[in-house]
Design brief:
By secondary structure, this protein is mainly alpha-helical. The protein has 7 helices and 2 strands; from the N terminus they run ββααααααα. The chain folds into 2 domains: 1-37, no CATH class; 67-210, no CATH class.
Length: 221
């Protein structure tokens, strides 16, 4: 997990933990590598209250000098985005994080099993010349490790976590980009207004959620 700059901070250079669906204070004060470790008790559902932009900070800091008309327009856009796009983003972001967690759990599991197999294999070699009576026990443990590795490889191969992680992350980041394009009235939302503008957002968000991405050529510029 990386760190980003906080655009609403009085000090633009002040680092801030990224705005995620994770509960506040999760592994607070821990080194970055510990925060990256997978969890066994990963949440089962997305955070229904998560927002890409904290509205209170937005209106009280960044838009405090904006006109009432501008604030009303942005508030209307935020409400529409919350219903039409943000719910999709929460789902895709959650699925990406879930599969990321699964992938890392599997990788750590394979590494621990490989280390254990090496250790008990070496112990068997040493025991043959000194304590031959415990060789059958060590062989049994080695067999259990091999069966466990086979089981993990089987279940991880049925629904590979890595492709699911990357696929859902790509959709989530495209939805994130669409969120800010609409809010800032960038292309293609600057050429339409009213109902047509909202319909365009709904169509593009639904397509991205299905894995159909906007034409890159029309997005450049």
């Amino acid at each position: 997990m990386s760190f980003s700059f906080n655009p609403l901070s009085k000090d633009p250079s002040a680092p801030k933990a990224p705005n995620t669906q994770e509960k506040a204070g999760f592994r607070a004060g821990q080194p970055a590598w510990i925060k990256q470790l997978p969890r066994l008790n990963f949440p089962q559902t997305p955070n229904a209250n998560y927002k890409l932009i904290p509205e209170e900070e937005l209106f009280n800091a960044l838009l405090k000098d904006a006109s009432p008309e501008a604030k009303a327009r942005i508030k209307e856009d935020l409400d529409f985005l919350d219903h039409e796009l943000l719910r999709l983003f929460r789902e895709r972001d959650f699925e990406a994080s879930t599969n990321q967690n699964r992938y890392r759990l599997f990788q750590i599991g394979f590494m621990l099993l490989a280390a254990a197999a090496t250790l008990f294999g070496a112990l068997q070699g040493l025991a043959l010349s000194s304590i031959a009576d415990i060789v059958p026990l060590l062989a049994l443990i080695e067999t259990i490790i091999a069966l466990t590795t086979t089981y993990l490889a089987t279940i991880s191969g049925r629904e590979p976590a890595l492709p699911q992680w990357l696929s859902n992350r790509r959709r989530a980041e495209y939805l994130r980009r669409e969120y800010f394009r609409f809010l800032m009235n960038l292309r293609p939302y600057d050429t339409v207004d009213g109902f047509q503008r909202k319909l365009l957002l709904s169509t593009r968000a639904a397509n991205i959620n299905r894995g159909i991405y906007p034409d890159q050529q029309t997005e450049n510029g």
